[in-house]
Design a protein that fits this description.
Rossmann fold; globular
Length: 333
Amino acid sequence: MAEERLIPSPEEVEAADTLKLPQSIVEDKLTVGEAPIVADGHKAGFVNIVGNPNVGKSTLMNDLVGERISIITSKAQTTRHRITGIVNTPGYQIVFSDTPGVLKPKYKLQESMLDFSEGALTDADILLYVTDVVEDPTKNKEFLDKVAREKIPVLLVINKIDLLKDNAQLEEIVTRWKTLLPNAEVFPCSAKERFNVDNLRARIVELLPLSPPFFGKDALTDKPARFFVTEIIREKILLQYDKEIPYSAEVLVEKFEEKDHAIHIMAVIYVERDSQKGILIGKGGEKIKKVGIEARKDIEKFFDKRVYLELFVKVEKDWRNRENKLKAFGYIE
C-alpha cells in the first residue's frame, strides 16, 4: 500500500457538499482531522474494484456498499469516473472505489478513464479484480499482469455465475484464472442475484488493516451532490439512446439551489455535433423531455426531496479530445 491516501485537501473539503447517510443534502461539511474517537482495534482501508468493461463492477459496488452509488446500464463504458462508496460500522470503515472498465484508449477521455483504473492499483489496501463467466481471460493482459504483480491482497471475483449450467463449468473457469492470478483468492458470485456477496464482504473485513477512519463515520461518499445529479442524467441518456449519442454526451450541473422542501437544478447536456443535438432533443423535444422526467424521478428518490429539473443541450465540438473540457468535466485535475 502506498503511503499516499485519497483524503481530500482542505480546499476540496471546503468546496464539497458531502453526502451522508441517510441520503440527503446537509449543510455541515466533512472536515479533515475531525474523525471520531474510535475504540482500539478499529479497522479501515481502501478497497478498489477494477476489471474490464461490462463484468458487473458497478453492480457489485452497489451491493457491497448497500446504496446505489454507481449508475448501471448494459452498455460498456457506463462508468467514466472513479466513484467512492463508504461503509461504516462501529468496528470498521471500508472505502470502496469503483473504476471505469479497462480499455485501450481511442481519445483523451478514455485515456483519463484508464488513468483512473491504473491509479486504483497504487493506493489500495485490498484489490478486487472482477471478471465474469464469459470474458476472455487474456483480454487486456497487460493490465492483468500488473494486478498479478501486486503485493497487497487480491480477491478475484468471478461474477455472473448464475449464467452457468453446472459446477464443472465453474471449476474450469476457476482453474484458468488461477494460472493468471495465482496469488488471488477466488470468489465466484452473482452480483445481480447477490449470491456470495456477503461472504466476500466478510473476507474484506478480515483483511482490513488496523486504522482509524479516513472519513467521518456518517459519510457515504467523497463526491459532491452535483456529481450524482450528472450521473443520474447520464444514466438516462445511456438507457434512452443508441449508437454514438451516449458516448458523445456529457452533463454539467450549472445550478443546484436547495430550499427547505425542494431543489432547483439546471443542467446542460453537451454533445459533439449538431446532428447529435437534434437526435438528443427529438421531435418537438419529446426525447429530452423523457430523459428529464426519468432523471427527475431518480434524483428525487436519491435526495428525498421534490426536484425541479431544467435540461439544456449544447454543442461542444470534439470535447472528448479537448483537455480544457475534460478538466471542466472533472476527468483531469
